[in-house]
Amino acid sequence: MAKPTTFVGSSVAIFLEDTANPGTFLRPCGLNSHTVTFSKNTQDVTVPDCDDPELPAWIERGVESLDFSANGSGILAAEALDNWWAAFNTTDSIKARIYVGKATDTNNGRFWEGKVHVTSFETSGERGNKAQCTVSVVSDGELTYNTVT
Fold it and tell me: Average pLDDT in the 37-57 region?
């Protein structure tokens, strides 16, 4: 049995486009955990049997839409605060990349790129601990799947 090639957890990451340098994507510092979700919205259609309409009908599903969302949480890094606030505090969608694999790994790195909205930017603090943050991102249109080159 061949051993699989695996990814380290920190290689799943949200990168935001640098507004000062379009086409350059930066990873805001501090997030320790990322969750990426792709989903389909479907329409159910009951299709009866033509020869015996009394038989139980099978449900077929057509895809209506595709969706993407991501969440991240971790330390609220001072270096990332302005980036997250600017990304949240706009009504325009922004370009982002969601990586699985290191952004420099031309053998195994992959990423999705497209427009997103930062829909949630939450900060929290507790005496004796570091300030925390949680962000939520949703797609604004199609994301393309790419190989790191």
Answer: 96
Domain architecture of the chain: domains with CATH: 9-147 (2.40.30)
Q: Is the pTM of this model over 0.70?
A: yes
The sign one gets for the Cα dihedral 144, 72, 148, 79 is positive
Alpha-carbon gap, residue 125 to 8, rounded angstroms = 28
**How many angstroms separate the first and last alpha carbons of the chain?**
29
pLDDT band at 128 (very low <50, low <70, confident <90, very high): very high
The angle at the Cα of 38, spanning 70 to 145, to the nearest 5 degrees, equals: 90
Q: Compute the distance between CA of residue 99 and CA of residue 10 in angstroms, rounded to an integer.
A: 10
The dihedrals phi and psi of 87, each to the nearest 5 degrees, come to -65, -35
pLDDT of residue 104: 76
Structure confidence by residue, pLDDT tens digits, 20-42: 899 999 999 999 999 999 999 99
Q: Are 131 and 123 in contact (CB under 8 A)?
A: yes
